[in-house]
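Sharing a chain and its predicted structure for anyone who wants a worked example. Both blocks are below, sequence first, tokens second.
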Amino acid sequence: MKTLRALETVVEVATRRRDEALQALGKAQREHQQAEQQLAQLQGYTAESLERWRQRASVGISATLLQTQQNFMGKLDHAVSFQNGVLQRLQLNIDHCREQLVQAERELASLNKFVERREQAHQHRAQKQDQKANDEMAANQHRQHSTAHLWK
């Protein structure tokens, strides 16, 4: 009985670990999705800025304004590049979380299978004991019946 309790505790811990891994994966996926949205916003803003610049440049611009625009676009390109790096790191985190989840699910499945086999073995032993007790009772009844017939 102690062993069964210990196994239940181990299964509970493994279940909790699996649930935590699942939550971590969900969180990582949400963070990645938010980062993708931020990248899309940056790219959209960059495209809008380029379009506004083209319209403005068509009427003539000063060298100072051109330099300012180039600096601004450089900063936007840097932000897009940085956000791509963030997305790559977040994807690595998702991959790691998936691996952790698969490992936790595999461990939990193994433990559940082990518990199932232990319970089956316990039931088999109990059935054998019941069968043995029934066989002994039947043998005793047969002996008693045989002995009673001998005296008649």
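Comments welcome. DSSP finds two helices and no strands in the chain.
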